[in-house]
Amino acid sequence: MSALESSIDALYKSPLEEFVSARTALAKSLSGSDAKRVKALQKPAVVAWAVNQVYWHARPVYDRLLKSGKALRSAQIAALGGKSADVRGAGETHREAIAGAVKEARRLAVSSGAQPNADALARTFEALSLATREVEPDGRLTKPLSPAGFEALAGVTVKAHAPRPQAREVPPPENQKKRVKEAEADRLKQEQIRDAQASLEQARQAEASARADWERRKRDLDSARQALDRLQNS
């Protein structure tokens, strides 16, 4: 790994409130395309930052999560293919791994003064562990994620089963089209809800950060006023 990559990793390992200043300092130490790249690095949302901390500081917990997610996906694919698979058992193991990851993320975050939302953490860990492709590099996540849902198994061939003696009546083509449209509309709606939830979480985090900054500045102002009063009255 290059020195620059190690330095970038260090940005995502460090406390969240130090990210911007550390990024600025690193960019100033570089030139050309490397400096531009570092300047463009996005500060993580608090949920994403907490997930990163599990990767950097509690790797066994993170690896267990990915392993259980892979096992669950394999079981689901096997079941869709008509093979015997313990989907329920794999699902229970995966839920336990997610819960453990959330607990560890909150522990690491609280020790640094952050309080990420537990539900948003669970959704992000689930999405990471079931993803079929890398969304962002491990340890460098910048935004919360939402699980892709059953469509993540797209492309899996479902094994056809022998027809029963009395097959179900097939709906007319028009009804099939209508149902497909309704299912697609519902899927799009769920995606919009997940996106809106992620946006709301980011807005809450931004508001909390702004409020903390305002309170800190107000304390500084009050301290300055008190110092001035003491000087004037002494």
Jot down its keywords.
single chain; mainly alpha; 3 domains
Report on this model:
This protein is mainly alpha-helical and 234 residues long. The chain folds into three domains: 37 residues, no CATH class; 106 residues, no CATH class; 62 residues.
Give the % helix. 55-70%
Radius of gyration, Cα only, in angstroms? 24 Å
State the distance separating the first and last CA atoms. 61 Å
Count of separate DSSP helical elements = 8
Low-confidence stretches: 150-164
> What is the global morphology?
elongated
Main β-sheet description: none
Oligomer: single chain
Please state roughly what percent of the residues sit in beta strands, choosing from under 5%, 5-15%, 15-25%, 25-35%, 35-45% or over 45%: under 5%
Q: Structural class, please?
A: mainly alpha
- Helix/strand order: HHHHHHHH
- Average pLDDT taken over every residue: 81
Number of domains: 3
User: What's the total number of strands?
Assistant: 0
